[in-house]
Task: inverse folding
């Protein structure tokens, strides 16, 4: 077969002819199966010229600049539960976010792993509160983002360490310590008669209090357009006086006297600590709320969530010029595509 060599500048010189250079054409389904960097074609499905980029393993429309995949996150761990009697409130789960700051650059060729921490379970006299589970976001192109579960409330002892620390039992001055940058310490116990107050669990916004042991405040975040509070500490339990309230209306209220429960951290998926149990021997603490992971990303992209063990994503939507996805339980993976 004869080969004709076209010399520059004739390679791109069509003269005055009313003609055009024809690219290979085909549908999206007919794209090459193993494309190399820079391959170009006309996609009859989309109606655009496109080229292949091996760095992102992506076909890009040639007249459309690639949209950076800039992602904002809120990663809140599960709250800790309060102790069982005259006990400290549970500490809030660790709170980490870049929303309102510098976004992270993700890649459409990477699969990201998401874990949502559980809230600490209710305990019965004479038991310490249970610390919450960690929440995390991880991918090969970003540094692991992991918030630490809230510390359980103390019962006859100091509060436990966590994202925010658990409140101390009435007879201990030592609230649980917090993880730097994720929350605040729990409050110390209120001492003896007449109220025998447990300390409040720490929250993302402030430390837990002593006598009454109100929970530390949470923080508001509008990443999904709802401007909710997250990571409030649970109130401590005691014998009398006024019930110790949970932080920012989302931490569980502490019990006084002999009710059956110290109250739950509510609503769900706010990473809040539960209230400590009251003064009687059969008292129980509340159940703390699980954490949450919320991602906000450019609306040009689609997020695909695949549930793993116990995984659940309860909402996807649009806020402003972005999309968001809220992941509420277990483990799973997420990918992004145009």
Result:
């Amino acid at each position: 077969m004869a080969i004709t060599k076209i010399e520059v500048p004739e390679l791109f010189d069509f003269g005055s002819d009313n003609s055009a250079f024809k690219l290979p054409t085909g549908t999206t389904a007919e794209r090459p199966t193993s494309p190399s960097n820079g391959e170009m074609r006309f996609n009859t499905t989309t109606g655009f010229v496109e080229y292949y980029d091996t760095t992102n393993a992506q076909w890009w429309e040639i007249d459309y600049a690639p949209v950076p995949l800039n992602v904002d996150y809120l990663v809140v761990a599960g709250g800790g539960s309060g102790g069982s009697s005259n006990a400290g409130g549970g500490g809030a789960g660790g709170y980490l976010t870049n929303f309102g700051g510098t976004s992270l650059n993700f890649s459409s060729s990477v699969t990201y792993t998401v874990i949502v921490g559980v809230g600490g379970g209710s305990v019965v006299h004479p038991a310490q509160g249970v610390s919450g589970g960690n929440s995390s976001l991880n991918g090969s192109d970003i540094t692991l983002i992991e918030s630490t579960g809230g510390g359980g409330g103390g019962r006859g002892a100091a509060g436990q360490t966590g994202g925010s620390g658990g409140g101390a039992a009435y007879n201990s001055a030592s609230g649980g310590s917090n993880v730097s940058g994720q929350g605040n310490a729990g409050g110390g116990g209120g001492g003896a008669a007449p109220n025998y107050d447990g300390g409040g669990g720490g929250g993302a916004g402030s430390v837990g209090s002593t006598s009454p042991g109100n929970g530390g405040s949470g923080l508001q975040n509008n990443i999904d357009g709802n401007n909710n509070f997250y990571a409030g500490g649970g109130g401590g339990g005691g014998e009398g006086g006024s019930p110790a309230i949970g932080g920012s209306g989302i931490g569980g209220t502490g019990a006084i006297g002999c009710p059956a429960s110290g109250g739950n951290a509510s609503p769900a998926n706010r990473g809040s600590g539960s209230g400590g149990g009251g003064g009687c021997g059969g008292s129980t603490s509340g159940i703390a709320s699980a954490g949450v992971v919320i991602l906000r990303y450019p609306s040009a992209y689609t997020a695909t969530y695949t549930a793993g063990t116990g995984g659940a994503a309860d909402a996807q939507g649009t806020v402003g010029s972005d999309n968001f996805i809220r992941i509420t339980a277990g483990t799973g993976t997420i990918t992004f595509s145009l």
About this structure: The chain has two domains: 10-61, 67-338. Residues 2 and 11 are 18 Å apart (CA to CA). Residues 67-338 form one domain.
